[in-house]
Amino acid sequence: MAYTRGNLAVKENTAARGQNPRYRETTKVVTHRSPLPVREKLLYMATIIFCVAIAAGLLWQNSQLYDIKRQVFNLNTDIQSISAQVKELSIQREKLEERIPEEAAKLGYVEPQNEGVHVQVPTASIR
To answer: Where are the transmembrane segments (predicted)?
Structure first.
């Protein structure tokens, strides 16, 4: 037995109408959703805005950390290159210090016989 407009006790009249009905009777169930109240919409919107703000804050913080780490890396590479330059320059300085006596002898300078320099200050000029 078919379900006819909410009542199962009704008999079908297809036998009285004939074997082949010209049209098929169908029913369509339509459900209407009630719209969300304004407060609930605002609550959802506030929740979404809050979540987006938290995500944006985390992304900003991570970008700041990335920048700081990048600066530290750049400073470390600069320190390494400068320390290599310092080593090369200290080696060059030592080589030049070894050549000082030779160059002085070529120019006519003589090493003093006495070690150190003695300067005599008159006692009358001291007050």
So the answer is: 42-60
pTM of the model: 0.48
CB-based contact 78:86 (threshold 8 Å): no
74 in any annotated domain:
yes
Backbone angles phi, psi at 111, to 5 degrees: -75, 140
Amino acid identity, residue 55?
A
Q: Which residue has the higher pLDDT, 94 or 22?
A: 94
Query: Is residue 65 domain-resident?
Result: yes
* CA pair distance 67, 62, nearest whole angstrom: 9
Q: Which domain holds residue 100?
A: 35-106
> Residue 2 has which token pair?
């078919």
The angle subtended at Cα 16 by Cα 12 and Cα 22, nearest 5°, is: 85
Domain count, the chain: 1
39-90 pLDDT per residue, tens: 999 999 999 999 999 999 999 999 999 999 999 999 999 999 999 999 999 9
Alpha-carbon gap, residue 111 to 41, rounded angstroms = 97
